[in-house]
Amino acid sequence: MLAALRHNQPEHSVLPPLLYFPLAPAAELKEQFIRIATGIGSVVHTADTFEGALELLQKTLQPGQKVLSTLPELSSDGFIYPGKDQDPHIYADLDVAVFKPLVAVAENSALWITEEQLIVRALPFITQHIYMLVDVSVLVGDMHEASRITGLKSQEYGFGTYIAGPSKTADIEQSLVLGAHGPRSMTIFLYGSGT
Amino acid sequence: MEAGKQTHPELAGGFNADEQRVDWHDETLWWIRQKRDKAAHGIPEWELLRETASQIKNNVLSGLADYLENFEARALENGIKVHWAADAAAHNQIVYSILKEKEVTQLVKSKSMLTEECHLNTFLEEKGISVIDSDLGERIVQLAKEPPSHIVLPCIHKKKEEIGELFHEHLGTAAGESDPQVLTEAARQHLREVFLTSKAALTGVNFAIAETGEFVVCTNEGNADLGAHLADVHIASMGIEKIIPERAHLGVFLRLLTRSATGQPITTYSSHFKKPAPGQEIHLILVDNGRTEHMGREDFRASLKCIRCGACMNTCPVYRRSGGHSYHYTISGPIGAILAPNLDRKKYADLPFASTLCGSCSNVCPVKIDIHQQLYKWRQVIVQEGHADLAKKVSMKGMSLLLSSPNAYRIAGKSGRWLLRHAPFAMNNKFNPWYKQREMPSPPEQSFSEWYKKMKK
After folding, report:
1. Cβ contact B204:B115 at 8 Å
2. Chain centre distance of CA B72
3. How far apart are CA B85 and CA A4, in angstroms?
4. A92: closest CA of chain B, how far (Å)
5. CA of B267: which chain A residue's CA is closest?
6. What is the spatial distance between Cα A189 and Cα A49, in angstroms, rounded to a whole number?
7. Which of A38, A145, B157, B243 has the largest CB neighbor count within 10 A?
8. Residue A75 domain flag
9. What tens-digit pLDDT sequence spans chain B (457 residues)?
């Protein structure tokens, strides 16, 4: 198969240079991120500090919800903390899952998260609602910068994903419905000053 | 729906019988095209992105064999099992043998046009394995026993009332229920159960990275991920052209893909599968199925650059008014019309003619495939090889005689104008395909050369 392919391929064509665009000021990135995230159906809360964001997060939880946290800061009573190598099926009735993504992209509000933070790969998809704690300092402008950072050797992963908003579909007459198969809502707690 | 031997004009004729539906279909797709424009215009460097993506894909085509070898080596290091399939039958057999070994009887599948191309569902069902398509649009057409009519929007041809009827019959929703919110919720509950009980999942592949051996799957619904992460076995099927050289190139394609497709800034999920989870298996099938042969056709190989965004369909005046099923091939619209003849020039001889050659498809293509040029070139190949239908051959011969003789051209023009004026029924009848769904134009008083002669006096 490959011999025939080699024979049929066109002559060598060079790769173009990698694209790079200068980063906008932090305040601009933050404004753009919030605008785009809200535009695709996420809810965004802002806080000055991580502690402030946690406080806001606690307040938005409803009594009786089954809440999972992947953050050590939030693994106290009332939160489930996932364990490595667990069968993901045990989370079928999960209401809320809380994560802390590694990179946030201003141009499309995508949040990059890998197995390290997820612990169980199925979690951000199986939960009914997803909460994201995002440090303003992880904001980048575009996917070129995001691809560069998430591809660093130090960022090695077995599974990683960009998540932008709640799961959605418009397959029925192009009417947008949030909550297709994955989370019905995404709430982002954006914190810090970016310094 | 097996299209049988009906051609694009015949099938489009059926679609055009319902004028209101045609208008609705046309307007819906044009609305998506407008959303694409808005998203593209929001990126100042959009044209640079298209040019870069095009050059990256040109490089991929020129070094595909090496990239595939590299990809395989890295993927194996990552613990992914790699299979090679020369054709559709080999692909289907590989999927079946994996499922058989694991004693799996239910496969949950996310969107994969490649498995449509290989007719995997029918093959597996004959072997007693049930296949459940999990993308909402694909599930709808699966319940309706139809193929997708669009690669990104599989049931774009269906009205919500028709979907309501299907769901009433198959999923037990209330009779007459057609609210998209309610119907989507019913599908969510139904498919949740499927995700939770399936031991094997199959997904497509949007991009496979030669440098790292990982592959990327993009969905909005989260169905590919739910299937893959809840199953013991994840099978991913990809055409060999889905390779990109380096991980850093991914940014370019993820910026272009959904903006071109639906005007979204990115899909909800862009999942990178590099290593199987502990206790899980990932099988990756690299499928040729005519692609190597296609690569050898200099005029047509650029269509292998396609990233399946569907922008060419949304913008195409013929697609919008004839519907995806009239193309009687897995991939409809302009890109389908240049891909299909690679597989079977006789069977798909009609498709390159289903175009006005307006060039809108090439203008929106994110990887700059010369789609309308290829449509034009395919027409010549098809006529030369004798696959065009008799009427087309005779009329082409007639036209070429007419256009090569100025005298004959003048006489024909004159008599044509006279005929349209004095005996319109000779043209405006069902024997003239140009009269279908159209009025013939009113004839001008004189030809340009008659007018020119008069003006010179």
Report:
1. yes
2. 27
3. 14
4. 8
5. A164
6. 10
7. B243
8. yes
9. 344 579 999 999 999 999 999 999 999 999 999 999 999 999 999 999 999 999 999 999 999 999 999 999 999 999 999 999 999 999 999 999 999 999 999 999 999 999 999 999 999 999 999 999 999 999 999 999 999 999 999 999 999 999 999 999 999 999 999 999 999 999 999 999 999 999 999 999 999 999 999 999 999 999 999 999 999 999 999 999 999 999 999 999 999 999 999 999 999 999 999 999 999 999 999 999 999 999 999 999 999 999 999 999 999 999 999 999 999 999 999 999 999 999 999 999 999 999 999 999 999 999 999 999 999 999 999 999 988 877 777 777 787 878 888 888 888 888 878 877 787 777 777 777 777 777 777 888 888 888 898 888 7
CB B145 within 8 A of CB B127: no
Strand, helix or coil for residue A87: coil
Query: CA B266, CA A39: separation in Å to the nearest integer?
Result: 12
User: Of B292, B307, B325, which closes a domain?
Assistant: B292
Whole-angstrom distance, CA of residue A72 vs CA of residue B369:
50
**Do A146 and A104 form a contact (C-beta atoms < 8 A)?**
no
CATH number at residue A117: 3.40.50.10420
B44 with B163, same domain?
yes
Residue A173 forms part of a structural domain: no
Residue with token string 């994560």: A99
- Greatest C-alpha distance within chain B: 90
**Same domain membership, residue B287 and residue B407:** no
Q: Which residues contact A73 (CB under 8 A, 6 or more apart)?
A: A50, A54
Q: Do B264 and A40 touch (CB under 8 A)?
A: yes
How many structural domains is chain B composed of? 2
Chain B residues whose beta carbon lies within 8 Å of the beta carbon of residue A14:
55, 59
Neighbouring C-alpha atoms within 13 Å toward the C-beta of A136 = 23
What residues make up the domain containing B87? 19-292
Answer yes or no: is B329 within a domain: no
Contact indicator for A57, A134 with CB cutoff of 8 Å:
no
Q: Taking the CA of residue B188 as centre, how many other CA atoms within 13 Å lie in the half-sphere pointing to its CB?
A: 24
Give a yes or no: residue B448 inside a domain: yes
Name every chain A residue with its beta carbon within 8 A of the beta carbon of B274. 157-160
Nearest-neighbour CA in chain B from A83: distance (Å): 13
Backbone angles phi, psi at B275, to 5 degrees: -130, 150
B278 plus B415 within the same structural domain: no
Work out whether the CA dihedral B301, B303, B265, B209 comes out positive or negative: negative
- DSSP β-bridge partners for residue A92: none
Q: How far apart are CA B340 and CA B328, in angstroms?
A: 10
How close B453 comes to chain A (CA, Å)?
A: 52
